[in-house]
Amino acid sequence: MLPVNCGSHADYQHFVVTNFRKYYPVPDALARSTWDIIERFWNLDLSFTDTFMADKYSKFGSASRTPSSMQRSYLLSIDFKVTSLTEWAAQLKMNPLYSILSGFEPGNTPGVGTFYDFINRL
Predict the structure, then answer these.
(1) CA 68, CA 80: separation in Å to the nearest integer?
(2) Structure pTM?
(3) Which of 7, 58, 71, 91 sits a CA distance of 20 to 30 A from 100?
(4) From CA 15, how far away is CA 1, in angstroms rounded?
């Protein structure tokens, strides 16, 4: 089924702020290098990906992951130097920071197969 579009880049930023405050009430605990990555992705607008890839998804079945979140997550794995999609899918489940920055609710993250499906569609 077509992905549920989260909306705009502003919606992504609102999602990040809301969840970041919930899971990281003391932001000083994060390393400066992590803040550099957070800032870079805060400004990276990938909302066009949702429109660009809309025809790659079926209109039927359960809702898919939003392409912009999948792309953002894949790029985050590169920035955090996790080269295996299997390892990255596991890290998303264990680390709320990774899932939040990707645009996924902590505890509701894609599996490794979803990443491979996304890459095939891309």
Answers:
(1) 18
(2) 0.87
(3) 58
(4) 23
Is 74 within 8 Å of 118 (Cβ atoms)?
yes
35-51 pLDDT, tens digit each: 999 999 999 999 888 77
Find out whether 83 and 89 touch, Cβ atoms under 8 Å.
Answer: no
Looking up tokens 């899971």, which residue turns up? 23
Round to whole Å and give the CA distance between 105 and 99.
6
- Reading the block at residue 103, the tokens are 């645009």
* Tokens matching residue 43: 């400004």
Phi-psi region of 79 (alpha: psi -120 to 50; beta: other; left: phi over 0): alpha
Contact 2, 76 (CB under 8 A): no
- The letter for the amino acid at 81 is K
**CA 48 – CA 80 distance, rounded (Å):** 24
Give the side-chain half-sphere CA count within 13 A for 118. 22
